[in-house]
Design a protein that fits this description.
The structure holds two protein chains of two kinds.
Chain A: E1 2-10, E2 16-25, E3 30-34, H1 41-48, E4 56-61, E5 64-65, H2 74-78, E6 81-84, H3 96-107, H4 111-124, H5 140-152, E7 158-162, H6 170-185, E8 189-193, H7 197-203, E9 206-211, E10 214-219
Parallel strand pairs in A: 3-8, 3-9, 6-7, 7-8
Antiparallel strand pairs in A: 1-2, 1-4, 4-5, 9-10
Chain B: H1 19-37, H2 39-73, E1 78-83, H3 89-100, E2 105-111, H4 113-123, E3 142-147, H5 154-165, E4 170-174, H6 177-218, H7 221-229, H8 234-268, H9 271-275, H10 289-314
Antiparallel strand pairs in B: 1-3, 1-4, 2-3
Helix pairs in contact in B: 1-8, 2-6, 2-8, 2-10, 6-10, 8-10
Classes of the chains: A alpha/beta, B alpha+beta.
Chain lengths: 223, 317
């Protein structure tokens, strides 16, 4: 379970990204974070995988207070959270297979097991014929699916995605959303930040609306 | 969060990196793969290291040769002890033994009165009239003493002479005090200049190499950032980069030595002969094995420390 208690986050003294956020996301939930650009969606996500630490308040994941984690403990938290970054963060000089394999290499998996698992997930994503391509040779939708494969390959407890459908056409958006749903069905808690209304409306999931760093509304819509 | 709190929803396969050997083999293969995937950056780093070390080792080669040559001059430091009267042949052996026992003595030669006269006649060949009336009894017998290298400094020579004067029968000792002083001042100045130039050279090499490595690591900062975000520990991120640094440093050092050897055979081998500065060895001599090993170790250290300090800047986990 993800819990935020009275969380505030300032980048500088004058710039407040989040103000007094309190929310609970139960295990296995699928929620959308929405709001205008600058509403604080990305900041909130970064707090969940400890890229940022709140200026005030507490962030808990499965009862573990992230604000009390030491630097050396953070990697072990991140291994249980799959992250899809807004800019994908794919390494241009590595192949698709190598990009996805990074997550498993960090966990210490053997070469043969990595090969099997990565091929399996890339097949699920429809990328089995792109394993040896480099990211720059892929379309935007394919790059997004590689990023998604990297986030999901170790079956994380939580999946966090920042604007995952930003630059995609409708067909690719549908494909990405169905992957999220499948992961959620397998038990992964999914938190997606997006300002794409159509994606939210078609998904019928809980929506947390942010405005100027505050929670404006929590709408429970079940599909 | 402890290590035990990791997600374990699926049954994880056996870890490939168990044990020190397993981890080392993974990190080494990752480092080699990184070198292959970043050929241009690796070539630039190795090239910079080898060029910097080539300049430093050229300086070292010239310095070592000049020092060797200057050290050769110190062979001229010789102490002569004169006797008031020629000792009996049996006493000569005992006297030589007592001199030999003084620390710092390298070689002792007895020059009797007859021998001294013979030498004088040899030196004044063609001007024999100057030697009229001179008999061997006029010239004093002496001991000519060579000192070992550690005892050729001003104070060491003076202390040696004091010990020598304690020996009964020795009335006068000569050792070219002024020459020794000037020679030692020259050697001190030479070493100081060498240390200063060498120091500047070392700082320049450190600066150039560490900045090159910093730039190459900067070029891969996305990779460092991503590894941190997917849960890699600091050690996991650093280890392949450090191995890369060590490999690049070693390769740079070996290349610089190959280039140095090339320069040596092409230009330097006979330079001493040409300049007439080292007639004994007929040219400059190459660096001894200990210096070559030090250059390789220096390259490895440069690569390792350069990578380590640069990584600190870009790893945030």
């Amino acid at each position: 379970m993800i819990q935020l208690h009275n969380v505030s986050m300032s980048y500088q003294a004058e710039t407040t990204a989040l103000t007094d956020i309190t929310l609970k996301i139960p295990k296995g939930d699928f929620v959308f974070l929405t709001g205008q650009s600058g509403a604080g969606k990305s900041t909130l996500l970064k707090l969940l995988y400890a890229e940022l630490s709140p200026t005030r308040g507490q962030v808990l994941i499965d009862g573990v207070n992230l604000t009390r984690l030491s630097r050396s403990q953070i990697p072990f938290l991140r291994r249980s959270i799959g992250v899809v970054f807004q800019d994908y963060k794919l390494l241009p000089n590595r192949t698709v297979l190598e990009n996805v394999a990074i997550t498993l290499e960090v966990l210490g998996w053997g070469k043969r097991d990595i090969g099997k698992k990565v091929y399996h997930i890339l097949k699920q994503m429809g990328l089995e014929d792109k394993v040896n391509s480099t990211p720059l040779r892929l379309s935007g939708g394919e790059q997004q699916r590689v990023a998604l494969a990297r986030a999901l390959v170790n079956d994380p407890k939580i999946l966090v995605a920042d604007e995952p459908t930003g630059n995609l056409d409708d067909e690719n958006k549908e494909q990405i959303l169905s992957i999220f749903k499948e992961a959620n069905i397998r038990g992964t808690t999914v938190v997606v930040a997006t300002h794409d209304r159509r994606v939210i409306e078609n998904s019928h999931r809980r929506v947390i609306r942010l405005e100027k760093g505050r929670i404006l509304e929590v709408a429970d819509v079940q599909g | 969060m402890s290590k035990g709190n990791k997600s374990n929803k699926t049954v994880r396969p056996k870890l490939a990196q168990e044990g020190l050997f397993g981890r080392l083999s993974y990190f080494s293969s990752r480092a080699l793969a990184n070198l292959r995937q970043n050929v241009f950056v690796s070539v630039v780093t190795v090239g910079t290291i080898s060029l910097a070390l080539l300049i430093a080792s050229l300086f070292l080669l010239v310095y070592v040769n000049l020092e060797g040559m200057a050290e050769g001059w110190s062979d001229k430091v010789q102490v002569t002890a004169y006797f008031d009267r020629e000792p009996a042949p049996l006493a000569v052996a005992a006297l030589k033994g007592r001199v030999q026992a003084i620390p710092g003595t390298a070689k002792v030669v007895f020059v009797g009165q007859v021998e001294a006269e013979k030498r004088l006649r040899g030196r004044l060949k063609g001007q024999e009239s100057l030697l009229e009336g001179i008999t061997p009894e006029v010239l004093p017998a002496s001991l000519e003493i060579s000192l070992d290298r550690k005892h050729r400094e001003n104070e060491a020579v003076a202390a040696y002479v004091r010990s020598l004067k304690q020996i009964q029968g020795i009335t006068e000792v000569q050792y070219g005090e002024e020459w020794v002083k000037r020679f030692n001042s020259f050697m001190n100045l030479f070493r100081l200049m060498g240390a200063l130039l060498g120091g500047f050279m070392t700082i320049a090499v450190l600066f150039i190499v560490s900045n090159t490595i910093k730039l190459t690591i900067y070029a891969r900062k996305e990779e460092l950032e991503l590894l941190g975000l997917v849960g890699a520990t600091r050690f996991f991120i650093k280890a392949p980069f450090l191995i890369e640094g060590v490999l690049q440093g070693a390769a740079g050092a070996v290349l610089s030595l190959v280039a140095l050897l090339g320069c040596y055979f092409a230009f330097l081998k006979n330079a001493g002969n040409f300049l007439g500065i080292n007639p004994v060895s007929a040219g400059l001599s190459f660096l001894p094995a200990s210096h070559l090993a030090a250059i390789v170790c220096g390259g490895v250290l440069l690569g390792f420390i350069g990578s380590l300090t640069s990584l600190k800047r870009f790893i945030h986990v």
